[in-house]
Amino acid sequence: MEFKAIADIERIATESATAVVAFGQKNFGEHLDYSDASIEIVERMLESAHSAYRNGQLAAEAVQQQAQFIGSYIGETYRRNHGADWGLVTSDGAKAVGLQSKSGVLFWPVTRVENRILNGGEDNVLHYYQLLVRKNGTPV
Predict the structure, then answer these.
(1) How many CA atoms lie within 13 A of 100 on its CB side?
(2) Please, are residues 108 and 89 in contact by the beta-carbon 8 Å criterion?
(3) CA-based angle 64:128:59, to the nearest 5?
């Protein structure tokens, strides 16, 4: 796998994360503050999105859009608290937006969020985030 940091991806992710902060306040009455603890709130928001998807109230296109925004919040939270770069990860010729931690761990929060919405709790983002923090050597 190869990673290439890209400033435009970071800019877009930062803007998307800011939109999630406003969305969380408006639609859930929750204050997202980019703390590690705020990922628990995000997990609850995603359970709601999964229920809407399962009940046919959330179209596939909306799942992808929500994944991009909420995944950006998770990635930005990690980047701000633990250090990482946004960019493109290339694996077997396929490219995906992801991050590389200071310790070199590659991760894809947008993909994880999409899986969480589609599959439910088996793709819990709080557990995912906590694992990423442990891999970087910082306790959650």
Answers:
(1) 14
(2) yes
(3) 20
**Position 140 in a domain:** no
Residues sharing a CB contact under 8 Å with residue 112, sequence separation 6 or more, in sequence order: 71, 74, 123, 125, 128
**Between the CA of residue 17 and those of 9, 70, 104, 124, what are the distances in Å?**
12, 7, 23, 19
Q: How many CA atoms lie within 13 A of 109 on its CB side?
A: 36
Whether residue 95 lies inside any domain: the answer is yes
Measured between alpha carbons, how far is 69 from 85 in angstroms, rounded to an integer?
A: 17
Model confidence band, residue 34 (pLDDT cutoffs 50, 70, 90)? very high
pLDDT value at residue 138: 57
H/E element, 89? strand 84-91
Residue 96's alpha-carbon distances to 1, 33, 52, 53, in angstroms, are 11, 26, 26, 23
pTM score above 0.85: yes
For residues 68 and 110, the answer to whether their CB atoms sit within 8 Å is yes
Indicate whether 66 belongs to any domain: yes
Structurally, how many domains does the chain consist of? 1
